Hints:
Two copies of one chain form a homodimer. Chain A is α+β, with helices and mostly antiparallel strands and 94 residues long.
Amino acid sequence: MFKDLDPLLHSQLRLGIMSILMAVEHADFTYLKEKTNATAGNVSVQIDKLEKAGYIKVAKSFRDKRPLTTCKISKTGIAAFEKYVNHLKTYINK
Amino acid sequence: MFKDLDPLLHSQLRLGIMSILMAVEHADFTYLKEKTNATAGNVSVQIDKLEKAGYIKVAKSFRDKRPLTTCKISKTGIAAFEKYVNHLKTYINK
DNA sequence: TAAATTTGGTTTATATTGTAAACTTGTTTA
DNA sequence: TAAACAAGTTTACAATATAAACCAAATTTA
């Protein structure tokens, strides 16, 4: 009846990050932080988890002498997100 | 951009219970336990939380000499569920 | 009829999380 | 050059989900 919801995506902040990354080509740390209204520490931790799961790719560089963390969703991440959304529908079905 | 997701509903099991209660007039403990594939302890705890939040009404009686716990969603619960679903849409928007 | 099993739960313990506060490293500004 | 700021990371804590253990009453079995 109810499909299991991927615990990695069933988290407000991680879902928000993934939702943004589904819509844009890539996003940097500060952008994600602002759009989600989350604290930096929280964003940092959740980006790590998503990266470790292979849902996103993270690249670190410098822009204007300052660190720049750029995130991009992976194929695995897209698949996981779509699966999660489908599973959600078994709960909210309409 | 992203709306907050009611933490009480953003839980796989509680969402499953509420989803069932949105669809039926009322449901008893064993039915909820079976449909959600959860353990009795887990169902018991989550029913308590939903009741304390005023999202469901719980009635205890006896059927065939055995305890019977019956749950029914409240108006507050219906409103909360609908709000949750709308907020979810800001994440999965499509 | 005493013991074992089943039913319908509740309570308790634990392991996992989510989260923010505190910290770090480097840069800009006053 | 001290203070403030930027961009994160690490750490600590509180909250949560979950299942194991437990309980009481009824039923079945030996």
